[in-house]
Design a protein that fits this description.
The chain has helices at residues 22-29, 88-95, 105-118, 126-133, 144-153, and strands spanning 2-7, 10-15, 48-51, 54-57, 70-72. By secondary structure, it is of the alpha+beta class. The protein has two domains: 2-76, Beta-grasp domain (Ubiquitin-like (UB roll), Roll), CATH 3.10.20.30; 83-153, [2Fe-2S]-binding domain (DNA polymerase, domain 1, Orthogonal Bundle). The structure holds FE2/S2 (inorganic) cluster (FES) (2 copies).
Length: 165
C-alpha cells in the first residue's frame, strides 16, 4: 500500500506491506536509523517516535496507519549539523552524561521532547517525571542522569530538592 506521511517536516511517500511497522519503515525504507529497535513488542521504548506530537512505540504502529500523519524521529530534534545544532534537550543529555552505550538514547530524547512540548509542567511533579522516564528502559545509566538532563532542559535546577506533591 502507498502511504504518504510527513517525517521530520518532509513529505515522504512509501510503498509498504500492511504488516510492517513504522519503526521498520523509518529505518529500512527511509534510512532513518536513529530510531532503534530492540524488543519489538512494546516494552523497551527504544523505538519511540512522536506521532502527531505524542510519543508512541513505533514497533507497535503499523506504517499504513500513518497516512497523512506527522512523524518526528530523533533525527528531527537537532536544527543544524554538529554540536552547535543540537537541541537544548540533546545538549542537556550531553552536559549531564545521560547516556552510556547510547542505544536507548534516541527513544528517551523523543519521549522527553514530546512530553515537554505537550505539558512542560511534567518536570514539576517528581512522580509524574519518574513515571514518564521509567516507561522506557535503560540498562546503563541508572536513570538519574536522564532525570537531571530533562530538568536542565526545562530550565529547572537538577540539584534542587524534590518537592513532593
Ligand atoms: Fe519498540 Fe522495544 S522496540 S518498545
Ligand atoms: Fe545504554 Fe541506556 S545508555 S541502555
Amino acid at each position: 500500500m502507498r502511504v504518504r506521511l510527513s517525517v521530520n517536516g518532509e513529505e515522504r511517500e512509501v510503498d509498504v506491506e500492511p504488516r510492517r511497522h513504522l519503526g521498520d519503515v523509518l529505518r529500512e525504507d527511509l534510512g532513518l536509523t536513529g530510531t532503534h529497535l530492540a524488543c519489538e513488542q512494546g516494552v523497551c521504548g527504544s523505538c519511540t517516535v512522536a506521532l502527531d506530537g505524542r510519543a508512541v512505540r513505533s514497533c507497535l504502529v503499523l506504517a499504513v496507519s500513518c497516512e497523512g500523519r506527522e512523524v518526528r524521529t530523533v533525527e528531527g530534534l537537532a536544527d543544524g549539523a554538529g554540536a552547535a545544532g543540537l537541541s537544548p534537550l540533546q545538549r542537556a543529555f550531553s552536559a549531564e552524561h545521560a547516556l552510556q552505550c547510547g542505544f536507548c538514547t534516541p527513544g528517551f530524547l523523543v519521549l522527553a521532547q514530546a512530553a515537554l512540548e505537550q505539558d512542560p509542567s511534567v518536570v514539576d511533579d517528581p512522580e509524574r517525571l519518574r513515571r514518564l522516564l521509567t516507561s522506557n528502559l535503560c540498562r546503563c545509566t541508572g536513570y538519574e542522569p536522564i532525570r537531571r538532563a530533562v530538568l536542565r532542559a526545562a530550565g529547572r535546577d537538577p540539584d534542587a530538592p524534590e518537592q513532593p506533591r
